[in-house]
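Lab notes, practical 5.
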Amino acid sequence: MMNLSGPAVAVRDLRVSRGGAEVLRGLTFEVPRGQVTGLLGPSGCGKTTLIRSIVGVQIVGSGEVTVLGAPAGSPALRRKIGYSTQSAAIYRDLTVLENLRYFAKVLGAGKGDAERVLEEVGLAGAGDRLGSALSGGQLGRASLAVALLGSPELLLLDEPTVGLDPVLRQDLWRLFQSLAERGVTLVVSSHVMDEAARCHRLIMLREGEILADGAPGELRERAGTVDLEEAFLRLVEERAESVR
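Output from the prediction step:
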């Protein structure tokens, strides 16, 4: 049974540098449980670095990241977190189903879990296909299926809908909403503004800083527009004016 007390993720003054450049600049925020939180912003704004920091695989310069009540990267979190990267995380010389059964065994997931997640991501008809024979969109969905194994409490999904057609994107967002209704917490990164409205809450990033944080409706109201892309641009202008 999931522990629903406290935030799923708590970040305090997180700073990360790479190659001498500061990628994340003192981020502080919390992710509530049982919701879909979107990390929104252009490529290079720090979304992937932030997700890696939450997973516990990113070297951080300073700050604290607490996940499900434990420090990020703690061994106790391994079976509680599902992580889907931008790059496909499956073996190309195995079939999709063989991949899922292998990872299910590693995680100690229940019997039939591989078939369950295969159905959830819309790949039921591709279980016997080799990873090397999958399209880019299918590879992404196969990686997402791996992240869903074992019913994790927290899902961290880095650009999970890239390369998918509108119908498949809609199906996956329905799945994300269904998971949230069952108490799963999701953090989903995207640079596609029309996906933002599907989230319960948005964290807009720009150049390693939080530009805005709130529900989609709140951010639209703050920017004085019904369009989230326009809201993002207006908030960028607002930030630029405040630092002049």
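Observations recorded by the TA: The helical segments are 47-55, 96-107, 113-120, 136-148, 166-181, 193-196, 216-223, 228-242. Strands lie at 9-18, 21-31, 36-40, 62-67, 70-71, 81-84, 154-158, 185-190, 201-206, 209-214.
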